């Protein structure tokens, strides 16, 4: 392996360790509901970019190979429906969490 690959491996490993250790060091922030909103937004953006730029084209290609008679982009519809389902589940879970906090009398900061 060349030096760029080793450097990339080191950087990825270092960032993963740093990202995993920070919530352990800052426990009070990570336990609160509003602990890491920027980190959560960044993570959601990374996974969305991963799905759109890597997984969606690969899925479209494999779907086209598996079902060559279907010309309509059904794979894109499946992906969009799955994304909307996950988004709906996230919103529902956030509303349920807020409702449980209100019913139990827990007040946030």
* Low-pLDDT regions: none
Order of helices and strands: HHHH
Count of DSSP-assigned helices? 4
What's the story with the biggest beta sheet? none
- The shape, in one word, is flat
Distance between the termini: 50 Å
Mean pLDDT: 75
Helix content: over 70%
Structural class: mainly alpha
Structure write-up:
The N and C termini lie far apart (50 Å). The model has no long low-confidence stretch (mean pLDDT 75). The chain has helices at residues 3-25, 27-31, 37-66, 74-104. With 109 residues, it is mainly alpha-helical. The protein contains four helices and no strands. It is flat, with a radius of gyration of 20 Å. Helix 3 runs antiparallel to helix 4.
What labels describe this entry?
flat, 4 helices, about 110 residues, about 0% strand, mainly alpha
What's a quick, concise take on this entry?
This protein is mainly alpha-helical and 109 residues long. The chain is built from four helices and no strands. It is flat.
Give the arrangement of secondary structure elements.
Layout: H1 3-25, H2 27-31, H3 37-66, H4 74-104
């Amino acid at each position: 392996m060349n030096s760029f690959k080793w450097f990339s491996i080191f950087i990825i490993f270092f960032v993963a360790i740093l990202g995993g250790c920070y919530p352990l060091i800052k426990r009070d922030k990570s336990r609160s509901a509003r602990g890491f909103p920027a980190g959560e937004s960044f993570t959601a953006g990374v996974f969305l970019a991963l799905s759109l730029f890597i997984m969606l084209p690969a899925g479209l290609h494999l779907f086209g190979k598996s079902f060559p008679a279907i010309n309509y982009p059904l794979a894109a519809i499946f992906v969009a429906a799955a994304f909307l389902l996950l988004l709906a589940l996230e919103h529902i879970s956030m509303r349920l969490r807020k409702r449980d906090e209100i019913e139990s009398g827990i007040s946030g900061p």
